Amino acid sequence: MNAGQLSEISLKPSVKRNKFILMKNKLPLAEKSRKTKNMKYPDAIQTLERALKNAPQSTITALAARLIAGAKQFDLHKTAQLAVNFRMDSIQRNQANPPDYTHESILGAPYADDEQTPLGAGEVWHHGRRASNTGLKYAFNSAGLPINPFMNTGLNGRGVLGQFGPNHAVDNGIIRIKKDENGDDALHVIGILRKFDNDAPALCGGFAKYARGANGEYIFDKAAVIETQLEELFEEMISGSITLDAKHAAKLPKAVQNEYDRRMLRRNGLVLSDHHKAEIAEQIKTGLKMAQVEENDPNFLKRLHDVIAAGHECFAGPILNDNRNTNNAWIETKLTWFTMDDATWQNIVGATPKYNYAFSAGDDASGVVEHHLSPTLIKDAFASHGALFSFIAASYLLDAQAKGKSLPPSIMQQCLDVANFLETENARNARPNSAPRP
Question: CA triplet 115, 383, 108: central angle to 5 degrees?
Fold first, then answer.
């Protein structure tokens, strides 16, 4: 895809998943968390539900309500069958007697908590990055570690997550309206295929990059959210189109080795796996690409930042159906959506771009795709992203209605198809001895 065009997005070949070594963590078992089968959906879509409450009675409002209600229940059903992350495939979740594991990949990682003193300087539980997006206050186990307030995952410790308590992330919902094979307008969400999750369709996103306060505390405010969204969008969806220049390429070997050495200081002699080394090297390479663009074409990133900053929040809470969650560490995300047509992209690229910017996968994405909103997308999406795609669609409908914009019948039908699918699946899953379809 050339700079200034969004009409063609190619997929990269899938990459086979790699395995990691497991190591046992000697933390005490967490007290019982909420039973998964009795879960209620967390208060994660407050902004979206306010928009729904304030919307007039109409066909659009009714359809948005069906999408929201259906997605919540669908996500709960999927979460009841929570799997184990592929890095930990030799263990089983057990809600009655949860095993206790921390994966070797987080040892020495710069984002990981210290095992004995998780809180950094100036930090307090329930504040900053230690607070839940929902405002819910979590309890603590006998070791003083947070207990997942949303569910009993059947697994204690941190697993593959770096921080005890909430591990904050962001996601980008990039809406694009384009013609389908019948020539009708269709709603698409530009996203990725996840390289290490069987190329599952997903939104573009990643873990938060925090600002730091005067006392060293980590700040997770709106500015930090937008900055993380910008970095993740660049890393996963644009960095593949950038080639390192000689200056930045020369920095790569030393930067990678320094990171290896730094992590080894906190790994008690446990060597880094080849896969882990490759993952670190790719992250550093991607970071150098962004530094290169910041140095040589800063206005590109500023224009991209401005588009992201004008987005609409529609979710802020835990990703329930994520196989990385444990009883002491869980993922929460903030999701906003914005539109990206050819004109918007061309404006971001600019009249005289320094590079041939294009949507091209990088970091942990194996491909960039225009996800066509459909029941298949909802069913196959990574983790809780099926629900997130549905929330984006509902928010888009309500926003268009509030602004007096007409919605093509074809897009209404798309959303209706998804709502019908969700309700059919939820009815089937509500029957005794039923389980979500694979």
Answer: 25
* CB distance 136 to 117 below 8 Å: no
Report the pLDDT value the prediction gives residue 276, as an integer from 0 to 100. 87
Predicted confidence (pLDDT) at residue 423 exceeds the cutoff of 60: yes
What is 22-430's CATH number? Answer: 3.90.79.10
CA 235 to chain centre: 13
- 338 φ/ψ sector (left φ>0, alpha ψ -120 to 50, else beta): beta
Distance from C-alpha of 389 to C-alpha of 376, rounded to nearest angstrom: 12
Nearest partner of 218 among 148, 166, 182, 263, judged by Cα: 166
pTM over 0.90: no
The candidate with the shortest Cα–Cα distance to 308, out of 227, 370, 408, is 227
Phi and psi of 75, rounded to 5°?
-65, -40
362: confidence class by pLDDT, cuts 50, 70, 90? confident
CB burial readout 29-41, b (16+ within 10 A) else e: bbeebeebeebeb
Q: Residue 7: CA atoms inside 13 Å, Cβ hemisphere, count?
A: 5
Q: What is the dihedral of CA 252, 255, 257, 259, to 10 degrees?
A: -140
Amino acid identity of residue 97, one-letter, is N
Q: Residues 63-81: what's their mean pLDDT? A: 95
* Under 8 Å between Cβ of 185 and 405: no
The answer to whether the beta carbons of residues 143 and 28 sit under 8 Å apart is yes
